Every structure is written in C-alpha cells, then in structure tokens.
Fold:
Amino acid sequence: MSVKKIAVLTSGGDAPGMNAAIRAVVRTCAYHNVEVLGVYRGYQGMIEGDFVELNARSVRDTINKGGTFLKSARSKEFRTPEGRKKAYENLKKSGADALIVIGGDGSFTGALLFNEEFNFPVMGIPGTIDNDIYGTSHTLGYDTALNTAVEAIDKIRDTASSHDRMFFIEVMGRDAGFIALNTGIGVGAERILIPEENTTAEELLADIEKGYAKGKTSNIIIVAEGDKSGKNVFQLKEYVESKHPGFDIRVAILGHMQRGGAPSCYDRVLASRMGVKAVETLLEGKSNYMVGVNNDVIDLTPLEKAIKGGSKLDMELVRVAEIMSV
Ligand code: ATP
Structure:
C-alpha cells in the first residue's frame, strides 16, 4: 500500500530542532505530493484526536525556533492497550496511513508497540538533548544544548577566576554523561562527574587537593544530574567545605535553560536531513526504523535496536578530559 498521508508528532522532553524536523517532514511531503497531519501534544493528542492539517506554508518561520509548535507531552494513557486503540482509531479516521515520531527512546517504544498492534507504519527521528540514543552520533537538540551550556559556564568561569572560587555546576544527563563530558572539555573544567563512572566524593576531593598543590586557584567541576558519587551538587559543596573550610565554593544548576533556545545551525541542518530521510523511507514502503547520523552520513537503525542499544559514550573523551586537567 502506498503512503498518502503522514502524521507527525513530537513526544517526551522537548528539544531544539524539533520544529526544524517537523518543517522538514512537512516540506518533504509537499515535495512528494503527500498530505501531512500534525498531531498536537504527542501521543495524548493522538488519543484525543487533536490534529491539524499542515502544508508547506504552515511551517514558515519555524526553523529558527526552540521547543515544538506541535507541543509535546507524556501520555500515561498511551501506555495502555485501550489508549493505543483510541489513538489508532482517530488516526485511521483522519486518513493518515503512516506516523513519524520525533522523540526519545520512550517515544520509540510506544511507536514500536503501535506498529506491532495495528500494523501501522512508523518512523522515528531522535529528538532529545541527552544524546542517549543508540544508532546516531547526534540526537536533535544535543549540539544546541552543548553550546548553551558552554556559553553559560564561560560566564560563570569569569567569576570563578576573578574571585578564586570553586563552582560545582550541574548539567542535564540522568543516565548519560554526553552533555557533562563534552561541555566539561569545552569549558576547560577541572573535573567532570558522569553517570558512566563511579567517582566517589573522596576521589574528587583528592583530585581537587592535587590541583591546588599544582597551583590551580579556581575550579570548575561539572556534575551530570545522574552522577554516581551519591551526592548532589549541594552535598558535594558541603563535603568539600567540611574538609577545607577556607575554600570559597558556589553551586550553579543550569537546569531547563539547556533545553530551550534557537537551534544551532548543526541541529537545523541535521533536522532537515533527518526529516527528508524519514519521509522518503516511508514512501519506499519501509517501517520501524530510526533515522540517525553516523560519520556525517544519514542512515537507518531498526527502532528495536535504537531502543535497546545502550550508551555509546566515547571513553577516549574521558581520557582527553583527564589529560586536559593536568
Ligand atoms: P526523553 O528522552 O526526553 O525523556 P522519551 O521519548 O524517552 O523522551 P518518555 O517520557 O519516556 O520520553 O516517553 C514519551 C511517551 O512515550 C510517554 O509519555 C508514553 O506516552 C510513550 N511511551 C513511553 N514508553 C512507553 C511504553 N513502554 N509503552 C507505550 N508507550 C510508551
């Protein structure tokens, strides 16, 4: 059966570049004379039949905007067979015969179930700042988040240097250290704590003491949300202070500022390439793939593999970070 109308939605945490990906899907469909249905609020909007017909002109002025104009949501109801059935019936009624999901691994798990239950063609585009998806070297929003974090931490460093202060800076990354490790190297951090490593507070303290002995006067320590020290940034500060009451230590949590903002040029181009590939793969009659980029080539990974593949953090980067903080 040839695809005549493609539905597109954004799901899970928003990420810069999602708008650019929706735009790319819509324009590729227009190019191939295929209709497009926008689904508001991810799977929840599918369950509620909250749809909008889109055309090439509906996505003007969106490539440069953060967030997602289709809005995103987390839907508990879609986790149930009844919820997915409602979603399927609405989608069928709308005339859509394929679905593109822009989101993270949870969203892909939902898409795969939807395909298994209703034999409905699905494609995934990885949109999450965490970069924690197997099968692509970059997820949409990751590059922008790195640049946002680096810009913010550079500013904090000015104060750290001027006042000989130590800063514990928490960046996003519950399960993956991509943001922490790359921003850490990018800002010249003295130490980086990531979920993939088991650094204890004692080891961290020993490294800080070594740094001071070597003549360091200020310290930027990057901590991923999900680091394994067993202490959050405030507890780490208290711990180091308890051993060195003379140290001037501050904490900064970058938080949601990392998720927003205009996408970087890299993310805009990546979103455009991924959108084209997602639509054209569906038009070729294929399903259940995630579009990814590897060595700057756009390719496909089975959704199942993308979900289960696990972390791809480059441990050589950990070594580079260690050397840089000598
Ligand atoms: P992020 O990386 O930003 O967290 P994500 O796509 O992994 O993005 P989730 O909240 O895990 O975000 O998933 C988004 C939505 O996908 C959920 O709210 C739910 O509707 C659907 N979903 C996730 N897991 C499943 C599942 N096992 N079965 C059915 N639907 C699911």
Observations:
- The first strand starts at residue 5 and ends at 10.
- The chain has eleven helices and eleven strands.
- The chain has two domains: 5-141+263-309, 142-259.
- The mean pLDDT is 95.
